[in-house]
Amino acid sequence: NSTTLLRSGFKISHSALTFGAGEQGAALDGGLTTMQYNPASIASLSTISFESGKRDAFIVDPAYALSWYRFGFHVKEIGSFALEYSQIDHGEIWYVTTADNPDGYQSSSATHAFDRSYALSYAAGISGSISLGGAIRYIHSNIFSVEHVFFSSGILYQPVELNKQLSVGFSLTDFGTPIHSHDIAQGDPAPAYMRLGVAASPISNDNQKLTFLFEGSRLVADVDNNYNGKSSFTALFSSFKYWPHDIMGHGGLIY
Predict the structure, then answer these.
(1) Average pLDDT of the residues in 53-62
(2) pTM given for the model
(3) I need a surface site. Which of 53, 64, 131, 174 has the fewest CB within 10 A?
(4) Checking DSSP bridges between strand 166-175 and strand 192-204, what pairing results, if any?
């Protein structure tokens, strides 16, 4: 179910830059490095780029490893494209296959558990200051037999008058319909997020760059009276019952 997806490494920072900046990146034009937070960031790609990494998916259990691979390129007068594959390896788990004996389970079997994600992103500059981007992500988890598709979009504003030393980013990430496991009728809300960030670089030259960042994010999720998850697109307008107490603030410094 989406409890796994909410906790999974697909939601934590994949790079040292965004992790060190306070788990944020909506206002950064970091290309492949920040596309997780704002797909518009890949508009800054000018050449063929490749990125990969590996880290612990869960702090409490470092046995679960997250690995990712990203490939991006720019097509003149069309825009920038990026492909991503990421996987969380949960290792071998055991599960019950029969329960005929009332005093205990008869047998169990082992399987290799994983969560896998495939994403395609596109972004382009529509003016010298504004870039737009979007992404589609397919997630497959064999633990709960979950297969689902999510959508992301974002905008990045960097005034050319300020030599792009100020950046404002807004994104909606991983929006989708409720998530259903194959044997559970009740659906869980998608792990969608809304992000608004600002980045300012008072020092930026060939030798050094100092950037201050602040971002506000909130989980866009809601349930109906029967505790069935609502679509992210519906929750975007119906999930403000805890506003503004459900906003998480992120602050960071990059040098």
Answers:
(1) 64
(2) 0.84
(3) 53
(4) antiparallel
How many alpha carbons lie under 13 Å from residue 224 in its C-beta half-sphere?
A: 9
Q: Please give the share of the chain, as a percent, with pLDDT higher than 90.
A: 33
Residue entry with tokens 């506003």: 243
Residue in the block written with tokens 């490095």: 33
Query: Scanning the structure block, which residue is given the tokens 């992301």?
Result: 152
Q: Which amino acid is at 50?
A: F
**Residue-wise pLDDT tens digits, 29-49:** 888 988 989 999 999 898 899
What whole-number distance in Å separates Cα of residue 226 and Cα of residue 77?
49
Which long-range contacts does 56-59 make (Cβ < 8 Å, 24+ apart)? 57/8, 57/9, 57/12, 57/88, 58/7, 58/9
Burial class (CB in 10 A: 0-12, 13-18, 19+), 110: exposed
Mean pLDDT of 166-191: 83
d(C-alpha 113, C-alpha 83), whole Å: 23
Number of Cβ atoms within 10 Å of the Cβ of 31: 22
CB 71 within 8 A of CB 25: no
| Cβ pair 62, 56 in contact under 8 A | yes
Instruction: Retrieve residue 253's tokens.
Output: 């410094």
Say if residues 87 and 113 touch (Cβ distance below 8 Å). Answer: no
